[in-house]
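Q: I'm building a small set of examples for a reading group on sequence design. Run inverse folding on the following structure and report the sequence directly after it, with nothing in between.
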């Protein structure tokens, strides 16, 4: 490695165990994930075997209790694992984040019996989860969802359609928000639905500009029966569970965005230090040096922001505002950095021979998922200036 090559990220980790964990993740990312990323994304192939490897390695349940198969890791550590995975391939980093989000309801609001029965398989048994909140007619306005769960005997019957579901149609379990009562947020309840439940089906995956290896699809519920012991939390508590899950999930998206941006910066630096024009590396020209400096600074700022929010969460303190700020800043940074990476590579950046164009296409969706960045600004403003219409 020359002194011009991209340097590994310097991380502040709380324990020696965490340092060993990050070393393991880097090894898996470099050996198993990154080498096949471009080819498999181009082919639209979902790397299910990689998720099996991550599960067997104890990496699908890191922030959850070890008594249920989790890793007992603070969010400060878990998010840095996500960043490393996303830098190797966003499909994998985002998939782990979504799986963690799908496990949140049961891990946080489930009964002891539910957790004993289901969590070990969810966290370390090779299963893959999906989170079902959005619908074709309710995206940002999630409280207006129409999927219904009606009591029948000692269970529930679910009917409706969920939209934009990561892992839709291939997940082993779905955390589903459905209407069980009045209109609005107080009439929503959470359920844990098996992926092979009769009446549950996935539509054809959406045709996307990026993240082609990560299936995103509508999920249809046609008379899906679930017993009451798969209801998570109290009746009518589902929307508050969903929002609490999203606060944590937004930190996952922020970490993935920083990982993607770091990969784009590394690619830009690698190219700029090797590409020669006018007798010297293009990295020696001030215009590009300033671009690289700005890219690196925004990435470091994003990393510090998501880690500060994670440390609040780990300390049991409110972190919703900081999570929204991290999601907003980090995903906007990913879009800017990946666009600049394409510019630094010039014509080559616009070709599929280099990963910069894929990074740029992938970055766009991070400004949309788990609450658009316009929604994040609304959340932040409410914390800073109070609710609207006072």
């Amino acid at each position: 490695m020359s002194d011009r090559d991209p340097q590994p990220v310097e991380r502040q980790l709380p324990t020696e165990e965490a340092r060993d964990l990050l070393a393991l993740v880097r090894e898996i990312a470099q050996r198993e994930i990154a080498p096949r990323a471009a080819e498999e994304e181009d082919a639209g192939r979902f790397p299910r075997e990689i998720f099996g490897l991550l599960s067997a390695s104890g990496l699908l349940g890191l922030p959850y209790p070890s008594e249920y198969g989790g890793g007992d890791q603070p969010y400060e550590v878990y998010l840095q694992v996500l960043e490393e995975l996303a830098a190797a391939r966003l499909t994998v980093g985002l998939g782990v984040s979504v799986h963690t989000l799908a496990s949140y309801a049961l891990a946080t609001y489930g009964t002891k019996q539910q957790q004993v029965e289901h969590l070990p398989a969810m966290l370390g048994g090779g299963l893959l989860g999906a989170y079902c909140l959005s619908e074709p007619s309710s995206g940002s306005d999630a409280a207006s969802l129409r999927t219904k769960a009606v009591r029948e005997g000692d269970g529930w019957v679910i009917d409706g359609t969920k939209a934009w579901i990561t892992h839709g149609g291939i997940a082993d379990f779905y955390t589903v928000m459905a209407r069980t009562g009045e209109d609005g947020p107080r009439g929503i309840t959470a359920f844990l639905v098996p992926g092979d439940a009769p009446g549950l089906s996935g539509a054809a995956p959406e045709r996307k500009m990026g993240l082609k290896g990560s299936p995103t699809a509508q999920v249809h519920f046609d008379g899906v029966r679930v017993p009451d012991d798969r209801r998570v939390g109290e009746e009518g508590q589902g929307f508050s569970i969903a929002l609490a899950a999203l606060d944590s999930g937004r930190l996952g998206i922020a970490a993935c965005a920083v990982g993607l941006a770091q990969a784009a910066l590394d690619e830009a630096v690698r190219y700029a230090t090797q590409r020669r024009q006018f007798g010297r590396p293009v990295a020696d020209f001030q215009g590009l040096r300033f671009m690289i400096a700005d890219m690196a600074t925004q990435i470091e700022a994003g990393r510090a922001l998501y880690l500060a929010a994670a440390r609040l969460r780990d300390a049991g303190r409110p972190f919703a505002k900081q999570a929204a700020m991290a999601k907003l800043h980090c995903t906007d940074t990913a879009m800017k950095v990946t666009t600049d990476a394409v510019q630094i590579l010039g014509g080559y950046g616009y070709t599929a021979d280099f990963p910069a164009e894929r990074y740029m296409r992938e970055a766009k969706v991070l400004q949309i998922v788990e609450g658009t960045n316009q929604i994040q600004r609304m959340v932040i403003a409410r914390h800073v200036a109070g609710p609207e219409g006072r």
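The first helix runs from residue 16 to 43.
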